[in-house]
């Protein structure tokens, strides 16, 4: 029988893969780059813009700080990339910053990093998709009113692609990422050549002035420093996602650490070139952009209805001769695609980190389970849902979301580099070979410099963004940290409670087994339940019904005598027409009367084939089971009766060869729903 749900699942996700096929999903460097590095590579599309948006608060005068701020971001990126190359070599198991910090600074510090990264992965999806939608709207302004819908739809598509597995996601994302890199390099190269030839590109906003915000016209001293620090912290969004490669080392082909380090180096070089080029062209073309269009002066119309194009869009239009040229639309398309696909960095990093945390019992164990395509499906779905909600709440607005961003990244940067310094200290205490000691000393210097620099940036981010919204990210990380600690305590308590202290520990058998079969009326499901209970040969067996309707009970008793059922029937009184409470109280009475006995309760249930049939049957069995399961010494057994509507009853679906031996579920299994015993 055709199963629509299974067919749709296969269409979206693909065929299920065996565990032995995991090695086939390992990535070469050419696919690993777009998968793990699309976020930092695509950040050039908005990092420069975020710097300009902060500096133009004070008008055009402060734009001359842009080159210095851009240079600081480039230097920081170089330090971080070099530092993480040390991480992937020293800790190739895939834990990344979390493993480094947990090993060297303790479990609590490791959880701080994990919580910060999980929050930041969610923000990566939200910011990347929102920025991609911005670029789509820059090309087609009429789509502005559908911003949130487009953003949520893009997240759903990304989740579906990632559910198909890492390798297929890499193949899908490789072309847009390399197209974006090519477009950016061509645009930067063309723009710089035009500048050198004396025909510098001019942005469409170059003629607009900028009205400074009140009180920011003549900033000096500490106020000016804070403005520059704010711009620098916003530009540091270019570094987001750098750590993803260190989390994804196990996904690389062998030699894993070497390939991961090479991919990191390539990512760093490309990102630096593109960021520096875009920042330079933004200054050359005199791009003027503000948070509020009404800050611009000289606009052709009403500022309330004026839509500013992104920095990338303005540069592309200036370099290639307008907004109606093929290169402009190609660059906008490539930028929008790569920004949306940049969220894929999080779709790889989040599930991997969540899987490791689940393995360490800090998150639910379901997050450690691989899906049909050997991807961590539960982590992918969790990330998609949370990011979608965040986009809806913040209306997919990049400026609002950006303030929640990068805090987690620099928390992990700082702690991981500090942890690496301790790692090298321990190594140096045991290594005596001079060349190896020198390499370790150089590595310690690199990681030490990384710890200091990223620590300073973390302080800057906290000072400049905390009140603008970063406090929400801090609060989310604190809540997540506390939750993970609570989950670990639960699992530890659970394990201690279930542990076998002595190998000879055995569960003492009960003195007797008292069996109870719940009966509503005499029909085939009841007879099957009675037969099944008798097959267990309990010490005592009785059928129990509840007197909700006296006429029905009288009919049942008459049928019981007529068919000579060899099991005594006990009728429980229920003056208030309840069913669950009398049964539970009776079972507990049996248990109290003989504490060393076990009470086995057999509940006949219907199995139906259509969801709507459940609405037509009582769910008493579900309530009874949920109550009885909390009663010590009571065992509950469901005895199913498949109705003709159930595909399992009269229309069995053929199973694949070997499916039973492999323990695979029936194709129809998901369609069977249990109804109540009435």
TrEMBL record:
This is APC family permease. It comes from Peterkaempfera bronchialis. The keyword Cytoplasm does not apply. Keywords: Membrane, Transmembrane, Transmembrane helix. Residues 650-678 are annotated as: Disordered. The chain crosses the membrane at residues 65-84, 105-128, 148-166, 178-197, 217-239, 260-283, 329-353, 374-396, 402-421, 442-463, 469-487. Residues 661-671 have a biased composition (Basic and acidic residues). It is found in: Membrane. The lineage of its organism: Bacteria, Bacillati, Actinomycetota, Actinomycetes, Kitasatosporales. GO terms for cellular component: membrane.
